[in-house]
Amino acid sequence: MPLFYPQMTASFAGNTAGATVTQFTGNLVFAGGTNITLSNATNSLGQTVSIVGAVGGGAGFTGGVSNIGNTSGDTGTVSNRIILAGGNNVTLSQSTDAGGATITISGAAGGGGSYNILSAGTQVANTSGTVKFQNGNGVSFGMSNNSVITGSVAAQTNPTIYSTVIGNDRGWAQASISLGQNSLYIFPHILQQVPSGTCIKVPLMVTNSSSAFAAHTRGYTAEFAVYSRVGSNSTVLTRDFSTNYTASFSANSNVSWNIGVITGCSGGTSYVSQTASSAGINLSSSIHGARELIFGFPNKLTAGEYWWAFRHSSSSAGAAGNLFNVSHLIASSQTQNRMGVVINATNTGIAKNIGLGTYSATTGAMPAAISMTQINQAATNPIFYWVADTV
Question: Quick check: 80 and 63 in contact, CB under 8 A?
Fold first, then answer.
């Protein structure tokens, strides 16, 4: 045991704790504090004391995500480590050197906030999220290759119509007249859309003479046809369809009347008998007055350019009285031609509408083909109604 203890002097500066005695005698003891580790090594020369502090030692570390602002996931702090990770539209990059590390945070264009990216009408979309194209008003949307948006409109169809007027689309004056015997009336009419009808109805007025005092017969035939031309510049019309209507009437003095007429679109014939008791009694309840001829018409046309034709004829025998006098509803306009040409209904020409007029000769049947030069320019044509057979 030594006879005396050496006196030691210590100096304290910086962060200190406890008593700061500068001089003392006795033992000097080193003790490890918070986050400080002491190690001791001895050799022949003496003793080595190592003091090791933890990384960042001397003060506790905390870090984390605040619950203020835009956040997701867990919020709060930790005391060990923080790792940065790139989320949606955010990219992290790091570079290191002797001085440490540099972390760069990059966001996509417009990222990190809400922007007005779409407007329509009075509405403005203020979002950075998904914009949806909604199907509506016949327009549907689809996407391909995860980026190509296509809008589609369903094929448009014409609405179903059940009747249309043929022969008065020019807004001409209407009248009721007797058409010429075996005269062929031709006029153009463009179909913008095709009706679902199966009948052609020809309006007319039927009257009877009161002088039928003896046996008398009457026959009537009408014919209807549709023509077209192969090319838009063709001068020849070709018959596409034709059909006819027949009627027969007979009277035995003023006692009995017999008629046979077509009453349906199928072309069937209906026979009706009626008896009268005195002279002058007619068939007004069955055939006279405002009537119509009915032609069955298979719907085989498509929208386009057509020429419509009509002719009729009658025959009679016996007494002078007429059981069946016909006047047709027609559309008419002034006959016109070029300056320097005599105005005459028998002149050929295009008149106001190409192919409008009468055939150059009377005929007992519909021609298979008609040249434009065979159409006189008389601007008169009968009016038809194309309707469904249930109308």
Answer: no
